[in-house]
Amino acid sequence: MTGIDPQEQVLAYFRAEAGRFGLDAGSLTARRVLNWGGFVSHSYHVGDGSRSVHAKLATDHDGLRRWLAVHDVLEGAYHAPPLLAWLDLPGTPYRGLVFEDIDGDTWDTARQPGLLNDLRVLLGRLHEDRALAERLGDGVRSYRACWDLRYREQFEEDLKTVRACRPASVTDARLAWMEEEARVVLALAAGDDAFAGVTRSP
Question: Are 96 and 11 contained in the same domain?
Fold first, then answer.
């Protein structure tokens, strides 16, 4: 992670490629979107006031290339947003995906509790999707390895970014707390029998 926000380069890219995405180059804006999964990628809402797309970029492209390889399954069976293009952001190490933007609200669990069961069913199907697992080509992994794979890189990259471009609100004490919490979360799987199994789940 470079710690650099490539927002200006994103805007320049989409101005140059506006016709390809059905956007008006003269009216374009690019706005950084909070990435709930951490700082290891950058997400942008790019729009002209009537049409918009969503760009997700990273310096480590492996996960995004995996998505690219199976996007048809994710869109067809799991309600993933339609993928429009792969993006190589010129002059930067950032690469990623351009999706159709979905205009919606954040899920309010108190007002729409029924969606929780729908989500459980959908995730259950995803975790049992043997054809998708075969297509991805992953081998068998332990639950502990999955836990580590999911969180270690994210925490390490997020902390690296915070250290390099520390917001004023992140004091030395808060950074130390973040580092300790990351260590605690990563250690959870080490002594818990719930992580003893193995899986090929996508």
Answer: yes
